[in-house]
């Protein structure tokens, strides 16, 4: 197993950080590494907001569900899907652009996830820790106001980056046989494999050092599918210009 694969397999979310700041030269290298990610048709449909204003950070931490590590980390970033810049550039190049399509939304969201994962991997290669903050989408309209995001730009998630002050255990992933299919989608084994995985996750939660709890993977999914989680997102995206035409 080469060092890159070993690094990728060692990922864990860090929610407790040392009071050390990342030097600016290293931070900029992390962003450049992010920019090297694959991007659909070289559109590069993303923008990254580095939030340094403490009042804004505090507001974002509260909007994200009281996640204090937004304030405690060295650098907090908000990754935004950005179709404004590329469509504006195409318009200046002399065409009548079409805005707000479903494909544009997908492209921008995927591009944003790819650049963020590159940043995360680059950070971890330097001994830093990261934690994605999906809670940014709890109130995306207020987040957009705080960050002055224009139409055709929306906040996908945040990311805490800093020097870890904890070393949590690596959370087990689903068995490969559940997610890797050959030639076509086949799930006959999934029920049994997921049941085994539930036992694995239950044991993990009981053994981990950072807070024990009684739960399984399947149990944790119940709130996600028993209610309309973040049901505001469709109307929000349409209001931001992503009409999903």
Automatic annotation (TrEMBL):
InterPro entries linked: Flavin_OxRdtase_Frp, Nitroreductase, Nitroreductase-like
Presence of keyword Disulfide bond: no
Domain Nitroreductase span(s) in chain numbering: 9-163
Pfam families hit by this protein: Nitroreductase
Keyword Flavoprotein included in the entry's annotation: yes
UniProt keywords, alphabetically: Flavoprotein, FMN, NADP, Oxidoreductase
Molecular functions per Gene Ontology: oxidoreductase activity
Family: Belongs to the flavin oxidoreductase frp family.
Official protein name in the record: Oxygen-insensitive NADPH nitroreductase
Species: Marinobacter nanhaiticus D15-8W
